[in-house]
Amino acid sequence: MQKQKSKSQILETIFEQVDEQLSLIPDYDWDGSTIQDSMHFDMYVDTIADVHFTDGLNRKHYPFDKTMATILLEDELECRQLTKEDEYVINKNNNHNK
Question: How far does CA 57 lie from the centroid of its chain?
Fold first, then answer.
């Protein structure tokens, strides 16, 4: 992930909140099914959609609707899977070369 280039505190707060929420989402549900197939998927989407900031007039703003929250969650889970597959290939190649 790239370091933030802008100086916006609001943007930094949004990034931190979304990053934290995405990092807390497990790969699998308690019964072993993937989160994408889980009954809890919508709950995790809601945690992203609930990320907000408060402006100077004390008004809350929600930058992500459910569509964007779903896209972010699916992207996070897909990237995790790709990372695990990459690690598997590297480990397999390292063990093969011994």
Answer: 29
Angle between helices 41-49 and 66-96 (to 10 degrees): 110
Alpha-carbon dihedral 74, 79, 85, 86, rounded to 10 degrees: 170
Q: Which amino acid is at 89?
A: V
Name the nearest CA neighbour of 62 among 49, 47, 71, 44. Answer: 49
| Cβ neighbour number for residue 51 with a 10 Å cutoff | 19
Written as tens digits, the pLDDT of the chain (98 aa) is: 567 788 999 999 999 999 999 999 998 888 888 888 888 899 999 999 999 999 999 999 999 999 999 999 999 999 988 776 666 566 666 666 65
